[in-house]
Structure formats: structure tokens, C-alpha cells
């Protein structure tokens, strides 16, 4: 005997096709950028996620405020720190900020295997990378620009001589801060993207920055003992902070903050080309890394 005939029922539960205006690529980029920038500062995350970035921002600001206060008390404008050298003087704080926040932007999606979910929507691989890099650069830029601006305003309030020259130095320092943010952000994201666990990522970023700086300082010390100052200057290009400092000194007329910089006239252009190659190469590596992560 034939069994009972089963029939199905189609229920109209109200789903409809979207017929509104498509917001487009710019909106996607802006949304990804804002989301990653908020994550870099711990905004929208638990309170413990905000402690480290804001604490480091306060540490970055404290020397500038103290320097301005000392200038106000002593009436000695020469005590004001040179604007372009501020990032080099506080490179340890910047390195810690980068090491703690780069894994938040670069490795969380890879660790939890959610990258394919992003690319299941109309999100381009390159857009995804550029939004993350822009957010990391903005976070680093904010970290560095605020204390430099405090120094500049403090100098104006305390009536430093030749305010026009100080304005030019301040503008040059802003360009330098942008270059620092681009170079350091690129390095930090690449290292963090290949270390999905956050603890390993923090250690790896600090190791890359600090070990490269230590290696360069040791080699430069040996070279200068042998009076080979040209070689010492070129070796500085192997450390990220020295690399950007070379651009500031040779192309922006800043005071030297590193041990040595490559000689003119080729030192500045070569350093700038290395910065550009480092940034573009990092974008290419990140693009390949996240594209591979999307295929897992």
C-alpha cells in the first residue's frame, strides 16, 4: 500500500529584497576604518582594553607637559625639546603601544577564522588591508602629534624667539610623525598578522623593533670607534626610528636625534625610498596574508 502523501507549506515570513540605495565602497572603507580605529583605542570594548592605550598616551604626553612647565618657570626657551626628535626620544613608549594594539587590528579575525565572513560581502581584499593600516596609522599619529602640539603651543605661550621658524619646525615635525606612523604601523601589522595569538604578537613586534635598534646601535658604535662614520650613518637605515630620522634630518632640516644619519646628498632620498618600499611591501604582504586567511 502506498504511504500517506506528504505536502509542504510555504509560509510568507516577510522577507523582501533590498531596494534602497547602495552605500558603496566609500561607506565600506569608512566603516572598516572607524571600527578598527575604535578597536585600537579600546573604544567599544571592555574597560581593561582601554587601560593600556590611554595609559601610554598619558605617558607620551607627560614629558611634553613637564618640559613646557620647566620653560615657563625658568624662562629659558632653549630647554624646549626639538619637535622632530620627540618620537625618537620616546620610541620605547611608541613601540609598546604598537606592540599591544597591532595584534588587536591584525590578528583577531585570523585567530577566530572570521575573515571569510568579511569577504562574503562586497569587501575588497585591498580595502580591508588599507582600512586597517589607516586606522593603525591614525592611532599612532594621534599618539605622537598631541604631545608635539603641546610643545609647540607651550613655546608660543612662553614667547619663544622667532615664532615663524618654530612654526616651520612644527610643520616639519608633523610630516615626520606621519612618516613614523606609516612605517611603524606597516611593520607592526605585518608582524602581528603572522602571529595569531596576541601574546606572541606583542612579543614579536617588540622584538623586531628593539632588537633591530640594539643591533644598529652596536654596529654603529663599533664603526665609529674605527672612525668609519659613513658606514655608521648608512647602518642607521636598518632601524625604523633611525630610518625616519634620516629623512627628517636630510630632507626636512631637522636636528639629528639618532646616533648617526647617512651622508648627504643621497642619504635623505635613499631613506625616503626605503620608507616607501617598506610601506608598499607591507601592504602587499598583508593583502596576501588576509587573502590566504579568507581561503581557510
UniProtKB/TrEMBL annotation:
Keywords: Membrane, Transmembrane, Transmembrane helix
Keyword 4Fe-4S found: no
Signal sequence, renumbered to the chain: none
Bilayer-crossing regions: 54-74, 86-107, 128-153, 173-194, 201-223, 266-286
Protein name according to UniProt: ABC-2 type transport system permease protein
Amino acid at each position: 500500500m502506498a504511504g500517506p502523501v506528504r505536502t509542504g507549506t510555504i509560509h510568507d515570513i516577510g522577507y523582501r529584497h533590498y531596494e534602497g540605495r547602495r552605500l558603496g565602497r566609500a561607506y565600506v572603507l569608512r566603516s572598516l576604518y572607524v571600527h578598527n580605529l575604535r578597536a585600537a583605542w579600546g573604544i567599544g570594548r571592555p574597560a581593561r582594553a582601554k587601560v593600556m592605550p590611554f595609559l601610554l598616551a598619558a605617558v607620551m604626553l607627560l614629558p611634553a607637559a613637564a618640559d613646557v612647565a620647566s620653560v615657563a618657570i625658568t624662562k629659558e626657551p632653549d630647554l624646549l625639546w626639538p619637535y622632530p626628535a620627540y618620537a625618537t626620544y620616546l620610541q620605547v613608549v611608541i613601540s609598546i603601544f604598537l606592540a599591544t594594539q597591532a595584534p588587536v587590528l591584525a590578528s583577531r579575525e585570523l585567530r577566530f577564522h572570521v575573515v571569510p565572513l568579511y569577504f562574503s560581502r562586497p569587501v575588497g581584499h585591498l580595502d580591508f588591508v588599507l582600512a586597517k593600516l589607516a586606522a593603525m596609522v591614525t592611532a599612532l599619529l594621534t599618539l605622537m602629534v598631541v604631545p608635539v602640539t603641546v610643545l609647540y603651543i607651550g613655546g608660543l605661550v612662553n614667547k619663544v624667539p622667532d615664532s615663524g621658524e618654530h612654526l616651520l619646525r612644527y610643520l616639519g615635525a608633523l610630516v615626520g610623525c606621519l612618516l613614523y606612523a606609516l612605517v611603524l604601523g606597516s611593520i607592526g601589522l605585518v608582524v602581528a598578522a603572522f602571529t595569531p595569538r596576541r601574546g606572541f604578537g606583542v612579543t614579536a613586534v617588540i622584538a623586531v623593533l628593539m632588537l633591530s635598534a640594539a643591533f644598529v646601535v652596536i654596529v654603529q658604535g663599533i664603526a665609529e670607534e674605527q672612525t668609519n662614520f659613513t658606514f655608521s650613518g648608512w647602518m642607521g637605515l636598518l632601524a625604523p626610528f633611525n630610518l625616519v630620522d634620516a629623512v627628517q634630518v636630510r630632507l626636512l632640516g631637522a636636528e639629528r636625534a639618532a646616533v648617526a644619519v647617512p651622508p648627504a646628498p643621497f642619504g635623505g632620498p635613499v631613506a625616503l625610498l626605503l620608507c616607501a618600499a617598506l610601506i608598499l611591501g607591507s601592504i602587499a604582504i598583508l593583502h596576501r596574508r588576509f587573502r590566504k586567511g579568507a581561503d581557510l
